[in-house]
Amino acid sequence: MNVEYVAKLARIDLSAQEIETYQNQLGSVLEHMDAIASLNLDGIEPTAHASPVFNVLRKDEIKPSLPVEDALSNAPKKANDLILMPKIVE
Amino acid sequence: MSTAYEPVIGLEVHVQIKTASKMFCGCKNEYGGTPNSHTCPVCLGMPGVLPVPNEEAIRRTIQTGLMLGCDIAQICKFDRKSYFYPDMPKNYQISQYDQPLCNGGGVMLGKFAFPKETQKDDIASSKKVVRLTRIHLEEDVAKSTHFETSSGIDFNRAGTPLMEIVSEADIASPEEAFAYLKTLQQIVQQGGISDADMEKGQLRCDCNVSVRPVGTQKFGTKVEIKNLNSISGVRRALAYEIQRQSRVLSEGGSIRQETRGWDDPAGETFILRTKEDAHDYRYFPDPDLMPMRTDSGLLSEAQARLPELPHQREVRYMNDYGLGDYDANVLSSDLALAAFFEECVQSGAPGKACANLIANELMASVSSDASKLAESPVKAAHIAELAKLLEAQKINSKQGKEVFAEMLVSGKMPAAIVEEKGMSQISDTSALEAIAQQVIDANPGPVADYRSGKVAALNSLKGQAMKLSKGKANPQLIGETLERLLKAP
Q1: Which listed residue, B130, B277, B308, B348, has the most CB atoms within 10 A of its CB?
Q2: What's the ipTM?
Q3: Minimum distance, in Å, between the CA of residue B34 and any CA atom of chain A
């Protein structure tokens, strides 16, 4: 696993020194995964969650939303109730 | 000789699900509205919040799967799809990766779903089924509006329920893509899943298209076309792209795997990004959301509300009322129209005559826009009564058109119009015989002609009889009566 690539995906700017540090740290995390991979997992179902809890759902009911002023209060720039940001083009 | 190319097309269709509240929070799910007026910490992606899925969105996705013949997963889960873009502030979209709610299924392309000028082509009658890969449930993203130097974000749409319907690469022409989208749109609309208005972005379509030499099996390099906002736009964009790719290949070039946009006014696709910028979404199970089981009620609840599908209704109309395939299709293509038709026939009016009046006269009067039916002064009771008058031959079809025109203006009932205009048709035998006899007595020339074998002379006599009756004689019966009297010794 390449730390530089992961950092780029996560939009984190790392110095050369940090890359080296994290490469080592990430390496040991991955080694731990190898430890799991070395176990005999035959007959064990892959699971996304450890507890057998299903369907934690809500009814389709409207709850009050934030006032527009509050929703926009963290925005560095706003106009016409929109949050403004540097122009993005796909 | 130059190589001929054939397209291979697969579509990814996003459909906004009609619910009261959003997918993972209780904010209102509403198109329009003051920007950023339907937000909360969950759909704004604040740290530490917990999403809770809307059970109704799940039910409607299952219902869609059932309507399209999919297998419904017994157990499935939500995953995080990571990417950075201002329309999704938590930097991941909750979606489904390897365990979608629905798998497989298909969409049958009916004849009348094809563009009008291609409905006579063989493919339109072939009942081709476009197979589906899957349908999964996810959250929609915020809406961005681009200005001169900045972009504005409205989070009202962020976190609203969205399903993605993915087809196999079974579509072989822009016309089939058109028919596929029309059919899908009709099904989700009639199932009450979505209003599926493409202009409002309630149904959005991305196309994957490649071309290959005719007769070969291997897929060519595919190009994705995004941002298509009408069904006819999809058709045009595909036609352009197929031509472009075929031209590049026949000139010895190669196709790059890329994403292109569609410029509708210019009528061409343009490059958005190449494969080098492809995303690495790093999907993983969302730890905030527990898996779903559909067998603990969700599936049976969705099954219980399965509606009659448009093509099933079409067959029923043909079988029960003897309608032709065109009329049956027109009437079953829209719920309001189908309800209108059924209201007409419930009063005992003949189905075929009602269908005829609705599909032709009534639809023409609302410029084929069924949503305007409610505003028309012509109600089901008018159509039913007029159909009965026609069926009983109280008036002929020409008079029927006149009555229709009149009720469209005045909203008066057909029987009253017939009475007022003194139009009612004469079908009574003795009255018809009296008219026929009068015509025979007054026209010895044509009568002699007819009796000496000039059958065509009957037409002129019939014309005289119609004139004498001021157009009220039943045209068929008066012809028969004349013939009978002329042949009598």
Answers
A1: B130
A2: 0.89
A3: 7
